Amino acid sequence: MQQAENTDISGEEAAAASIPGPLAVSVAPMMDWTDSHCRVFHRLLSPHARLYTEMVHAQAVIHGDRDRLLGFSEVEHPVAVQLGGSEPALLAQAAHIAQEWGYDEVNLNVGCPSDRVQAGRFGACLMKEPSLVADSVAAMIAAVDIPVTVKCRLGVDELEDYDRFRAFIDTVAAAGCTTFFVHARKAWLQGLSPKENREIPPLRYEWVHQLKQELPQLTIAINGGIATVEGVREQLRHTDGVMLGRAAYHEPYLLHELEVALWGGELQSREQLLRTLRPYVEHCLARGIALKHLSKHVLGLFHSQPGGRLFRQILSEGAHRPGADWSLIEQALAATTMTDRTAA
Ligand SMILES: Cc1cc2nc3c(=O)[nH]c(=O)nc-3n(C[C@H](O)[C@H](O)[C@H](O)COP(=O)(O)O)c2cc1C
């Protein structure tokens, strides 16, 4: 069973060998952002980062348009699908389908606090139901050979207590889950929007560090507010991996810098990297996919660089026009070679 394999790849051993573990860097699941086009771009920036889909509900996987929901490009490996849901049998079925589609991992969402998700009794509100999460994970593990992982919070609402958090992890780990991605803050289920729930509850990295210290046999990756190479290095001293969300999306070059910092290789320029995306862009355009669906993911590539604002502006204004093609990207790239630093 691959759950055991997950333990083999624990960061402790990798750190001992000075090799970053396979989950050292990952890009978080983000609805409306980490679609397949985005993941192809991120893969070019970082061959090693593990990439996550947007959350997809188990029911949708079972009954919906699988091409649209699960389709991905081969280059995206290693790629994980994130499932939402709380019915063990349905999650198991959806996990099995995801495995058949070729995903490398199935991740269960126990962190999303949106009203819609709560109404469906999944996401962050499951932090209150550890045994249901354990049953779900056990059913998924029984249905697949690929690793089943969990992305969770520290707690919800007034349940902000390390021992409760630890008890949640213990219960789910007892069901066979060996890998946890922890968004290091709690969520308020009432009164805060999902966006506020990513900003207002304080980050408590020390809880995640303590968890790893107490349960070294588990693979523990930390998430929340980490946005620099140094920040990642620091977290890797305490955990097996860092999951990056907004920083990876808004400043994608960070993924490339991390790739080189952790795995070596030569640092390529932003322009070089973007040009390697050209065959994929041309392929999509030929299939009738509008440029705007691709270019939106690269807007932050020149973040805080000379010409970065103009790059973003040219792409966001031009990509919506009918017939927009690669030449628009060339035009945007040309803006970044201008020496006028005020354009940054
Ligand atoms: C636009 C957006 C969509 C998100 N969608 C999901 C999701 O589908 N599943 C999930 O587990 N977390 C989702 N998140 C939360 C992120 O995965 C991550 O936990 C959070 O942004 C904190 O990490 P960061 O500070 O590095 O961004 C989303 C975040 C953003 C910004």
Automatic annotation (TrEMBL):
FMN binds at residues 29-31, 82, 151, 183, 223-225, 245-246. InterPro entries: Aldolase_TIM, DUS-like_FMN-bd, DusA, tRNA_hU_synthase_CS. PROSITE patterns: UPF0034. It catalyses: 5,6-dihydrouridine(20) in tRNA + NADP(+) = uridine(20) in tRNA + NADPH + H(+); 5,6-dihydrouridine(20a) in tRNA + NAD(+) = uridine(20a) in tRNA + NADH + H(+); 5,6-dihydrouridine(20) in tRNA + NAD(+) = uridine(20) in tRNA + NADH + H(+); 5,6-dihydrouridine(20a) in tRNA + NADP(+) = uridine(20a) in tRNA + NADPH + H(+). Coiled coil: none annotated. Its EC number is 1.3.1.91. Pfam families: Dus (PF01207). The active site is at 112 (proton donor). Its cofactor is FMN. Keywords: Flavoprotein, FMN, NADP, Oxidoreductase, RNA-binding, tRNA processing, tRNA-binding. One of its GO terms (molecular function) is tRNA-dihydrouridine20a synthase activity. The record marks 109, 195, 198, 309, 312 as: Interacts with tRNA. Residues 27-324 form the DUS-like FMN-binding domain. NCBIfam families: PRK11815.1, yjbN. Catalyzes the synthesis of 5,6-dihydrouridine (D), a modified base found in the D-loop of most tRNAs, via the reduction of the C5-C6 double bond in target uridines. Specifically modifies U20 and U20a in tRNAs. This is tRNA-dihydrouridine(20/20a) synthase. It comes from Pseudoxanthomonas indica. The gene is dusA.
